[in-house]
């Protein structure tokens, strides 16, 4: 296990998982619950947990090295697809997890930039991980305690105005993703966004993750169009 910050840990398993960047697994604990988590790495299979509710609190406080967990997956037919040329990864909060999984597969890391955003410095995640891969990083915080003061989309807009970008990959809160989609359409840039949704089954049966007639767990979680335009 790796402690990422005061309320986030990465769990590393002893198995490899044949999966594509953007896919997810359902993690289950007996007598508790089952929730979806993005893949941090596939070889070995690891996932990152931020404490946001009862289930994630149990994972982050009760699990110890050597404990057993149960999982299903990987799930998701919509995955990140590599695009030749300059690319930008835009991460908000835990959105860095699937983007880090993607970054490890990119052939040309020198032409890829990552924008990492958080509310404050102590909540930033994976900055050093991306840098170790050789990616140029841009940091933004809402309160200005690290990097640029403002939102990830402010930094993205500045780049799109001055550089020719082939594709923008995003993961994070819906308002951020919606703004990414709007900016990319305005600048005629392709984009791929990983959406979050309430998921119970993980493979399209329960319908709890339906958005505009699409199932995030089955058709996504990565989409090449914002749901309002599907």
**Share of residues in helices:** 10-25%
**CATH topology heading of the largest domain:** Rossmann fold
Query: Count of helices?
Result: 5
In the CATH hierarchy, the architecture of the largest domain is 3-Layer(aba) Sandwich
Q: Oligomeric status of the shown chains?
A: single chain
Shape: globular
> How do the SSEs run, as a string of H and E?
EEEEEHEEHEHEEHEHEEEE
Instruction: Provide the structure class.
Output: alpha/beta
Number of domains: 2
Main CATH class of the largest domain = Alpha Beta
Approximately what portion of the residues adopt beta-strand conformation? 25-35%
What profile does the largest beta sheet have? Answer: 7 strands, mixed
DSSP, total strands: 15
The Rg value, from CA coordinates, equals: 17 Å
Account of the protein in words:
The chain is α/β, with parallel strands linked by helices. It folds into two domains: 2-75, Translation factors (Elongation Factor Tu (Ef-tu), domain 3); 87-196 and 205-214 and 219-229, 3-Layer(aba) Sandwich (Rossmann fold). 20% of the residues lie in helices and 31% in strands. It has helices spanning 54-62, 96-103, 127-132, 152-162, 174-186, and strands spanning 2-5, 8-12, 24-28, 34-42, 45-50, 70-75, 87-92, 112-118, 136-141, 148-149, 167-171, 190-194, 210-211, 214-215, 222-223. The strands form three sheets. The chain has a seven-stranded mixed β-sheet with strand order 10-9-8-7-11-12-15, with helices on both faces. Strands 1-2-5-4-3-6 form a six-stranded antiparallel β-sheet, with helices on both faces. A hairpin with a 2-residue loop joins strand 4 (34-42) and strand 5 (45-50). Helix 4 (152-162) runs parallel beside helix 5 (174-186). The chain is globular, with a radius of gyration of 17 Å. The termini are far apart. The model has no long low-confidence stretch (mean pLDDT 94). Its cofactor is [2Fe-2S] cluster. It comes from Candidatus Chisholmbacteria bacterium RIFCSPHIGHO2_01_FULL_48_12. [2Fe-2S] cluster binds at residues 201, 206, 209, 217. InterPro entries: Cyt_c3_hydrogenase_gsu, Dihydroorotate_DH_Fe-S-bd, FAD-bd_FR_type, FNR_nucleotide-bd, PyrK_electron_transfer, Riboflavin_synthase-like_b-brl. Residues 1-81 form the FAD-binding FR-type domain.
């Amino acid at each position: 296990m790796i402690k990422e910050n005061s309320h986030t840990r990465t769990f590393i398993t002893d198995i490899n998982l044949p999966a594509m960047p953007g896919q997810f697994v359902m993690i289950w604990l007996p007598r508790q619950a089952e929730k979806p988590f993005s893949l941090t790495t596939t070889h070995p299979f690891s996932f990152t947990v931020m404490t946001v509710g009862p289930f994630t609190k149990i994972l982050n406080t009760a699990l110890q090295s050597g404990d057993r967990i149960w999982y299903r997956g990987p799930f998701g037919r919509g995955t990140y697809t590599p695009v030749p040329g300059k690319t930008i990864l835009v991460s908000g909060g835990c959105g860095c997890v699937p983007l880090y999984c993607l970054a490890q597969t990119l052939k040309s890391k020198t032409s890829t930039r990552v924008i990492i955003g958080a509310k404050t410095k102590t909540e930033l995640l994976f900055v050093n991980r991306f840098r170790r891969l050789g990616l140029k990083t841009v940091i933004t915080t809402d309160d200005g305690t690290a990097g640029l003061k403002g939102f990830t989309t402010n930094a993205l807009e500045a780049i799109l105005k001055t550089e020719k970008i082939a594709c923008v990959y995003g993961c994070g809160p819906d308002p951020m993703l919606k703004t990414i989609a709007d900016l990319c359409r305005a600048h005629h840039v392709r984009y791929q966004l990983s959406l979050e949704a309430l998921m119970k089954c993980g493979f399209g049966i329960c319908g709890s993750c339906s958005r505009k007639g699409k199932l995030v767990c089955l058709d996504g979680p990565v989409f090449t169009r914002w749901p309002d335009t599907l």
